[in-house]
Amino acid sequence: MPSVSFHSELISFKLKEKNRLKKWLHAVALRHGGKISAIQYIFCDDTFLLDINKQYLNHDTLTDIITFRYSEHPEPLESDIYISVERVKENALQLSVPFESELHRVMVHGVLHLLGFKDKTSKEKELMRGEEDFCLEDL
Length: 139
Fold this sequence. Notes:
The structure is a single chain. This protein is of the alpha/beta class. The protein is about 50% helix and about 20% strand. The chain has five helices and four strands. A four-stranded mixed β-sheet has the order 1-2-4-3, with helices on both faces. Helix 4 (about 100-115) packs across helix 5 (about 120-135). It starts with a strand and ends with a helix. About 25% of the residues are buried.
């Protein structure tokens, strides 16, 4: 049974409209020829995600999301996706967008990474942002 689940680590966080988000994320994957088997979203704070960033990626920087694929194989989509709620709130304030909008953008960003989208170069970032925008229209 395909699964998208939501958890929090060391913070209290309640995600709204879980079933709607699950359906949306599955639809995003299907539109790109992917199939979700198991994706866990883990919502946490900056400190928790910074520790993960340092330990596993050797990056000493704050980030809003880290996506860990379970296997080297592209299919099925199986991953742990860590999201810093603090960072998303800060980004939403800086971008003058509602928190939920920025959260949904970050959530789909993780799925798009699993589907092969990258964001290292400016061209890749532009393509990623365009695809995020396109996906958000369906939510």
